[in-house]
Amino acid sequence: MLEIDSGTVCRIIERCREFHAKEGVTFPYDPDGGDADWPNQMLADHEGDLTVQEVKALIDDLEPGQQQNLVALMWIGRGDFDAAEWHDAMEQAREQWNPRTAEYLLGTPLVADYLNGGLEAMGYSCSAEDWE
Predict the structure, then answer these.
(1) From the CB of residue 55, how many other CB atoms can be counted at a distance below 10 Å?
(2) Which structural domain range is residue 127 located in?
(3) Which of 66, 67, 97, 98 is the most exposed place for a label (fewest CB within 10 A)?
(4) Is residue 46 part of a domain?
(5) pTM of the predicted protein model
């Protein structure tokens, strides 16, 4: 079902955890509050951060379909869809895709937890034997 290697997702999860655990990473109180550019605003303060650059490069190097898989996984992990609605999540991810997927994902609080939850819901895991 996934068009992206689960190991790649696990590496992205690991790097997102590293970034979000850093001191000084803050998110707006209401990211849905009308400012569609909030992920870029939040990341602007961290554009020199090597972890941000690495995650952006990992995501930007993916094909659009793989980026859409990441977004659909995040939505499933966040509870917007469940695993049985994978095709619906992918359809919406395709419709909403743009080249700023990395910023969208990095700018989402708890994205690592959501991606991990989405992977698990789809029957994958980030245990060492699954992706190393």
Answers:
(1) 23
(2) 6-23+38-131
(3) 98
(4) yes
(5) 0.80
Predicted confidence (pLDDT) at residue 17 exceeds the cutoff of 60: yes
Q: What distances in angstroms separate CA 38 from CA 30, 33, 94, 98, one per listed residue?
A: 9, 9, 21, 15
What does the pLDDT look like over 71-122, one tens digit per residue? 999 999 999 999 999 999 999 999 999 999 999 998 898 999 999 999 999 9
| Domain presence at residue 28 | no
Residue 90 near residue 64, CB atoms below 8 Å: no
What is residue 66's predicted lDDT score, i.e. its pLDDT? 98
Among residues 58, 74, 76, 83, the alpha carbon closest in space to that of 111 is found at 74
**Helices and strands, number each (H, E), in the chain:** 8, 0
**Which alpha helices (H) appear in 22-123, and where do they start and end?**
38-44, 50-60, 64-78, 86-96, 101-106, 111-121
